[in-house]
Amino acid sequence: MSIRVLLVDDQELIRIGLRLFLDTQDGIDVVGEAQDGAEAVARAAELRPDVVVMDVRMPVLDGVAATARLTAPGRDHTPRVLILTTFDLDEYVYGALRAGAAGFLLKDAPRDRLLEAIRVVDAGDALLSPTVTRRLIQEFAARPSVAVRPSPLLGTLTPREREVLVLVARGLTNGEIAEKLVVTEATVKSHLGRVLAKVGARDRVQLVIFAYANGVAAADLDGR
């Protein structure tokens, strides 16, 4: 089955370029386009794409608000949203992830990286480009106002699970976490699955948001 993709960008040339590339790829079916967030929501309901490749700054309805609508609970169809933008240090980054985006990629990323990102988010995983992850972490660390009263869900985590949460929030992959904790990657996946379940996070992106919104990892940023 091909991955059904909806392209959303207010610049026609960007949409044309993305379509020309994706239409040549096996397993990808570009089912439609939209030029703003409002049209994206309407087209998603009509076309039922698997993945929406979403720009951020658009007229009528921006990508953050559109993402929130597309991923809202109770929708008949909920696509995975991949944010694709030039604004890596923008406030929109945090807003898009909180709104339910499954991934975040910069427009200057290689074409193969975009293809990988679409496949990753379609498979139910989450993706943040390494540079975005680290800059996002730095942004959170520099904004103590983001931290609020810690969630009681933190108390349900074991010390090792909290370690895994911190390392995920620092942008490490499962393999890197396994190496750091001197355990197998399968063990890391097991811990990660329990952390996701305990804090009610859907994926890795939400874990990053949860960790920094609760002030878990900022103090450990330069730690072990």
Report on this structure:
The protein has 224 residues and is α/β, with parallel strands linked by helices. It has two domains: 3-128, Response regulator (Rossmann fold); 146-220, Arc Repressor Mutant, subunit A (Orthogonal Bundle), CATH 1.10.10.10. The chain has ten helices and six strands; from the N terminus they run βαβαβαβαβαβααααα. The protein has helices spanning 12-22, 37-47, 63-70, 91-99, 111-122, 130-141, 159-169, 174-181, 185-199, 204-213; strands at residues 3-8, 28-34, 51-54, 80-85, 103-106, 127-128. It has a six-stranded parallel β-sheet with strand order 2-1-3-4-5-6, with helices on both faces. α2 packs parallel to α3 and α8 crosses α9. The longest helix has 15 residues, at 185-199.
Strand order, biggest sheet? 2-1-3-4-5-6
**How does the helix and strand content classify structurally?**
alpha/beta
CATH topology of the largest domain: Rossmann fold
The first-level CATH class of the largest domain is given as Alpha Beta
CATH homology group of the largest domain: Response regulator
Give the tally of structural domains: 2
Number of strands: 6
Overall residue-averaged pLDDT value: 83
